[in-house]
Amino acid sequence: MAIIERPLAIGAGDEAGATADRPLGDLTRPKQSDSWKDWLSTVDHKKIGIMYGVAAMFFFVIGGAEALLIRLQLATPNGTLLSPEVYNQVFTMHGVTMIFLVIMPLAAAFANYLLPLQIGARDVAFPRMNALSFWVFLFGGLFLNSAWLLGGGADGGWFNYSPNSSVTFSPSHGIDFYALGLQITGIASLVSAINLITTVLNMRPKGMSMFRMPIFTWMNLVVQFLLLFAVPVISVALFELTFDRLFGANFFNTEKGADPLLWQHLFWIFGHPEVYILILPSFGIISEVIPTFSRKPIFGYSFMVFSGIAIGFMGWGVWAHHMFVSGIGPISVAAFSLSTMFIAVPTGVKILNWLATIWGGRLRFTTAMLFAVGVVSMFTIGGLSGVTHSIAPADTQQTDTYYIVAHFHYVIFGGALLGIFSGFYFWWPKMFGYMLNERIGKWNFWLQIVGFNVTFGPMHILGLQGMSRRIDTYDEDFGFEFWNLVATVGSFIIAAGIAIFFYNIAYSRKEWKKAGMPNPGPDPWDARSLEWMTASPTPEHNFDEDIIVESQDEFWHRKYGYDENNNVVRIATAEEVAQDGSNHNVHLPSPSYFPIVLSLGLPIVAYGLIYSLWLCIPGAALIIYGMVGWIFEHPDDPNAAHDHHDDHGDDDDPDAVEAGDVDVDEVVAEAELVGAGAETEADNG
Amino acid sequence: MTATENHVDTHDDHDHGHPSDRSYVGIAIALAILTAVEIAMFVAEKGGFGDALVPPAWSLKIGLIALMIVKFFIVGAYFMHLKFDDSILWKLFAAGLVLAVGVYWIMLSAFEFSFWNDGYEDPGFWDGQVEFEQMVEDS
Amino acid sequence: MASATAVVDEHVDDHGHDDHGHAETNTGISNNKLAMWLFLSSDCLLFGALISSFLLYRTNISDGTEFEGPGDVFDIPFTSLSSFILLMSSLTMVLSLSAVNRDDQRAGRIWMLCTAGLGMLFIGGQVFEFTEFAGKGLGYTTNTWTSAFYTLTGFHGVHVSVGILLLLGTVFGTRNSGLGKEKSETVELVGLYWHFVDIVWVIIFTVIYLIPIG
Prior knowledge:
heterotrimer, A: mainly alpha, Cytochrome C Oxidase, Chain A, 21 helices, C: mainly alpha, Four Helix Bundle (Hemerythrin (Met), subunit A), 7 helices
């Protein structure tokens, strides 16, 4: 991937280059290279985005396998494939994996890759902290899944309600892995939220005002704010759970008069914003895809932005609709019921705007567009069944039945995941330099959407028939057999669709190589936003020179103008407008090993808390080593061709600040943020 | 800080608004006095100044909370420079603060927790549960 | 970017900052400072959850213990003193920043060490208080009140300790490079964190210690 050859340092830089930068006497500052080691030390937001994607797809396969096990178990009455204990673990880990280790990191993959590009920046505000986020997430996810090898996963549902999550009712270490693993991935989310918000607020080039940013960037900004505020809530809940289980605290100990509803409240105060954390990135993706393939600007840009913000705000006031049957009292139920009905309004605005964008457009049904339309239709179904839950008396009937399972799969699979697949097909050429095959892509889409409806559609019926969630089997005469079998068949159709997606990657790549690796060009879809204004795959420095933005959909307006009859006419080709990525004199932030070192310490501390506190010492030592090394390592390698700044670099060039200045302030500030993020962990040990 | 195109001459308004060391000390003294008042109120409530001067419980709570808020904002405005910095920082911090107060207030309300009650009484799982249990006991 | 046209200039950013030396970023605030404020904003939710957990259990005290209420164990004069110490450490912190802004390195370091010292006094007081409580039979696992109390004040204590490490790190980590005016932002960021920890204690002191329960 490393496209940029660093220019050799000349003159005085030569002497400096003779000694390697070894802040702690070891871990030589890595240089950029093509080897796999480059990936361990990279601070490039694009590589980090790709790694997020790869890691998430790895967990997606695990979570998908768990889903298939669930469906196999339920395919026939009195299934014996899984014991009740194992079944509990499988559905719990399926939920936890899909939410925290698949959808969230896939959204993070797109956000990391695209946010700086869409606003026209060279990188994120804190490149090393970006690497830290990824590694912390990866090790947290691996830690969480290592429970399978160490006595079984968590078994209390993805929300692990107390007191069911206490040692008494769940004596294995599964829930400890859950609590600590999510704590670790929470640190990753928090660090990345701070990083991306700072990037969007601070690093836009000239003319890129907030209301010229693409919708995808806007939705992700809202998501990062939601993460910023929601993560600490779940952190506290998880700390309380951990302390209860490992150190005998009494937060959820009903024997000592604790109120188990405390967990439910804290969990859902986090959990409902979390729902929007999952869905809004996907809304952002299709808000890019639909205008591109309708050849129209997004309908009601400001409505899209404000409805996203409104969803973000209102998402904080609806959490107790998950708790209508927990006895929170009629006033709470009424209030949360109302607020839940209201939150459907901004979501409806969005759906209307997508439809209005499609209306009268010149449509091209590429795979990306098909997936996007899939999101609009499937999410609408899921949203409508969601509104039925807001009516508390109806919800009382539906709670804990398969109707709920159907609902949240329609929004998370039908909404979030399909949107992410739309993003895959749309941005694949930008990320990897070749197009995914459209014909296979359509097979992928149709299998996925048909399989999805065959799987989750019947669950509405099962739920209304009274089949409860989370039961490991059912009897023959309950009348559940037929639709369960249908759902199981559907789940394998989905699996086939996903398998075809992986095949498509391999096939398209092979064909592309056979054809002599043709470049798809900067703008294969005739798209609108800035990421298409640079070469494909994106060069390491993103843009050759700063883009001065003069309008929303800047790239489009550079390609198209109006003739005297006010008709849209092409005024330039994409190749003429786009930058060719040939500027090799851009100074980039230097790679670093310390993010991965620091992150490696976190799971070790977590294992220590579970098995032996002694193990916390090497873990903490690794964290401290990583932090100290981080602080004393310049954010920028002083040996790496420092003064070869690109020629347009004025003093107020934002990239100069981001990449050029070695600044102790930044080092210490980063360390503070790292320290503050890790301190929660230190408190454990 | 709203957009003010016409104050070109006050270009370094980030620095010149900061209080002097002397005013920092003054602010600290004010904070110390407020803390002393808080403690005096506490002592008075315990009867430390004689029974005649015991304030009613509600006034004590209102007073202490008010003083707490005043101290909070003094430290935020002056020591953390929110008064002198770009208002976006204040808005960001206020977002977290308001959200925290809001959601946790609602959460505690859902527990039928009342800050003004001195004891926590189990409201029962459903309306009338306590009365019902009492009735069962009586019969 | 002096070449930017006037049309573009109007839209340079929507926060309306003027060109006053900090113009590298759209908001006019450095990335570091913005990030620190975002972190502090997020931390409000963390302490909010801890404080409300405590409030929920604040009357849940009698189980397994002899005494009637927290009033029996709280030593208000002692806690008042340590609250006062923490409050004054905020003063020494701003004095340090003010000295660094004047390029007075020596005073800057001394005030920062004072701040760290006051912080250590506070932590010492907290350790003393915890031992006292434990001596009276109030362990971490005794009842819901003690769990919530120790967790809340413990989290605050960890925040203070991290602050002390940041202060000492800044004082000793800049021995070679100097603590001149150019470091004022570093000191400012450490200070922001420190003051935040202080205002959290302002809340804890009132809500947990001073407001009486029945």
